[in-house]
Design brief:
- By secondary structure, the protein is of the alpha+beta class.
- It has a domain of 75 residues: Winged helix-like DNA-binding domain superfamily/Winged helix DNA-binding domain (Arc Repressor Mutant, subunit A, Orthogonal Bundle), CATH 1.10.10.10.
- It is 64% helix and 13% strand.
- A hairpin with a 2-residue loop joins strand 2 and strand 3.
């Protein structure tokens, strides 16, 4: 049984989601939210981003469907929309670890 062919529209949607994730600061925001929902002040402390920069990243993450937001009195609480985004991160971390291990082995052989 063959794999389903991806349509151009699906490929564009996938590329857009990867584009949203292709910024270390946004990955840092998602990583901070992995611990649970947080307001902007908590995310500033967790990420080290200033408020204007954080707000820009939160807007993109929200528009991309990666985070949800809910008003709680004076605060806006952000949360992960779908924690499965970390499946992709875990796959990439494993790949990076394997590449680093292979690089170390190659350097030991040369040295």
């Amino acid at each position: 049984m063959g794999r389903k062919q991806l349509t151009p529209e699906t490929l564009r949607a996938i590329a857009h989601r990867f584009k949203v994730l292709a910024e270390p600061a946004r990955l840092g925001v998602l990583s901070a939210l992995r611990d649970g929902p947080q307001n902007v002040s908590e995310l500033i402390d967790a990420t080290g981003l200033n408020q204007a920069n954080l707000s820009k990243h939160l807007q993109l993450l929200h528009a991309g469907g990666f985070v949800t937001r809910q008003r709680d009195g004076l605060f806006v609480i952000y949360a992960l929309a779908d924690a499965s985004v970390f499946t992709l991160c875990d796959v990439m971390c494993g790949q990076l670890e394997r590449q680093a291990t292979a690089q170390v082995k190659r350097l030991r052989v040369k040295g």
